[in-house]
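Before we proceed, please read the two lines closing this message. Let me know whether the structure tokens fit the sequence:

…
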Amino acid sequence: MNPVIEAINNRRSVRAYEQKPIPKDIINTIIEAGNQAPYTSMTRSQPWRFVVVQNPEFKQKLFQTAFPFWKNAIDGMKEAAPELYKMATCLYDAMDEPKDVIYYNAPAILFVIGPASGGATSCALACENIMIAAQSLGLGSCYVGFGAMIKGNAEVIQALELKEDEAIYGPILLGYPKVNISTEVANALEKIGPIKKEPVTKWI
């Protein structure tokens, strides 16, 4: 099979990672793949920039900032949508301590940052390139929307150098997929996994 098509077909959202560092040159290769993405004609050059987070203490700050948003959203499902609540909490319940249901203890968190106005399409294309490149290099990845909910922490904003007219697209988790996971976690991951459907296509 064509290696590009193979990487696209095999890419999955990975939520369990080995605690193994990623070589810097591999991360740079992945970032360069993101930087090669197309962008809208409204900009004359790439509108994005990247921030790589590997520092354990800073990752903890990110988690502590984003987790309350996740908890509030999940708690809101408890009565309104109990089945969805059960699915959303099964992985958290199965996790060993420390329970990181936002960034999944990934070795690297890659923030894709771009213009808040008009940057969504271009930055989404860069994110997709990043995840396909990661897959091709033997890494897992996961796009985590709750991971972007960190604007309430001034220290985090300062470290990311996030400007008022910028938005976070992603962030994207990177790491080597965990091989030996508990039965409880494996079952939870199975429950929250996507249901892949055949494409709906009309030919004219």
Observations:
- The longest helix spans residues 56-75.
- The radius of gyration is 18 Å.
